[in-house]
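Tutorial handout. Part one gives the primary structure; part two gives the three-dimensional structure as tokens.
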Amino acid sequence: MAKVILQPIGSVAAANSETFKSHLAQMQKLDEILDQKRAKVKLGWGESYQQRTRDKNKMTVWERIDALADRVDAIFPINTFVNDGETFGDEKAARTSPAAGVITAFVKVHQRWVMVIANDNTVASGSWWPRTPEKIIRAQEMALKLRLPVLYLVDCSGLFLPEQGRTFPGKYGAGHIFKMNSALSNAGVPQVAGVFGDCIAGGGYMPIISDKVYMTQSAYMVIAGAALIQGAKSQNLSSLDIGGASVHVHLSNCADFRVPDDQTCLERMRDEVAHMSGSAVDYYRSGTKSSLPLYAPAELSGLISTKPGVAYDIRQVIARLVDDSLFWEFWPDVGQEVVVGIAKIAGLYVGIAANVQELLPHPKHIDKKRPGGILYREGVAKLAAFSRACDDDGIVLIWLQDIAGFDVGVEAEKQGLLGFGSSLIYANSIREAPMITVLLRKASGAGYYAMAGMPYEPLVQLSTPISRLAVMDGRTLAIGAFNSRLDDNFAIVTKDPKEKTQIETGMKAVQDRIEADMDPYRSASQMDTDEIVKLSELRNYLMCFVEACYQNQGYRRIKNPRIWSLHDLQILSQNSLFKNSSSLKVETLKSNNIEETPKEKSTQDHVVAPMEGLFIGVLLQKKNLSLRWDRQ
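Part two.
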């Protein structure tokens, strides 16, 4: 019977070394910036607006979320920095929209992960801004993939009208939210809405398809408020008269329950979650528990340099993310630019695929090295085979990206790297088991796509304060743009001082612009990534997402470990098949004499390539050798 045997990985960090201390100091500065930005977003439009909300006997959005959660450390926000640094409306009265005016977060309620979508009532009364619909839809997509209950905390006055042209139309305009409401309902995903205040137009439609709708005494839901209804003022009507709880609970039946205040509403919503199906996480743990890594996750901040060209040991990173620092690595001698294997996070099995950064042995030339952080043929095939096997077995796959792209040049094209890359892209495009993508540092070119970047619909994509997402870095792009004026060493060829200054200025402008575009907050603002987290927080976020992936049963394949496809691949790839088989012998022919290949393993002589299905490739690397299969 096949068993999963995990091996120790990692070692004690040299925390007292100057290199570690330098990396840690640089990372701490970036973490402080992240903390400051988070605090600013959490304030919404500021303390005065928060106080105005409390003066109405209402809670702020974060007070509501805190009251809903089992614990404050069981809240994991996503898309915090949407619209970061942007202003909207008339230039004279331009306004910001922190977090696009809506908070989305994985929140644990009664030991079950739920998706919370909550309007920030301190930001233009919870209005929808450009990208607010996309942010809500993204959270709904995550919930639909995992069949997580969705809790809507509605306090929304509709569109921010000066920007309606960027919010109302389009494939992912505001109306798509209601389509996702319907898709969630159709899939049997529980939806519970609490209406806490203004609920106008789209804000009014949002809760209606939910299974349960609660309204507080001060809340109302209307297609159009009193100010827009002709004669409303002369009739002395208010929006509460038109669509308050007394109307929708007792007359229209558009809501189910009437509650006195925010706190009661949140308690009742928690009660609803308590009556839903429980979590299957303990079932899939099979009697085990979540265990801490042997090495502190906080040490990641001192292991990885903020500079993209400085190498580090990815296995040390994995050792600080996985339970007990145990790992089952597959095919370590093939495609050494990537590491793939199985571990546990939160007591649950996950696959990990990661880039190696160090210089690596060249598979054909003993005296040569080639850089890590790049995808070569063997590594791409290894990733594709591993991704397919994990999908077949229902294993959540975590991608740890630090990639500069694919190999390029004559050799890469002759080897058909385009085809191998397409195979990997295909494998990731049709996966059913969830993927989680982490941009540790570099995320460049087609490598970003191939390793399950955002276009390939991972459940969630995380960035760190040092992530850089782009086709290529600023310096490389500047060299490309001015290539005709540079020599083979990228030095400016002109001797004219004025022209040289112009070229230097132009290259610097290109580099600065691209580097600004690569800033992780720019990516987060545009929703090119889902969240920015500290390296020291990464394990906790992964624990949340992995538990959420295993919470529900019956909607996707999750195989028992003893019948994993991975076992078949591992057995078939072992060199012992060739060393001990009496029916298959590799022989070399040289100078008309037959010499049997030495039995001891030699990665220079032959490499067992990763398999797809039952295919095994044997690559003979020596010159002047031919291959004969001798069947006895």
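Part three, for discussion. Confidence is low (pLDDT under 50) at residues 576-632. The CA atoms of residues 465 and 631 lie 57 Å apart.
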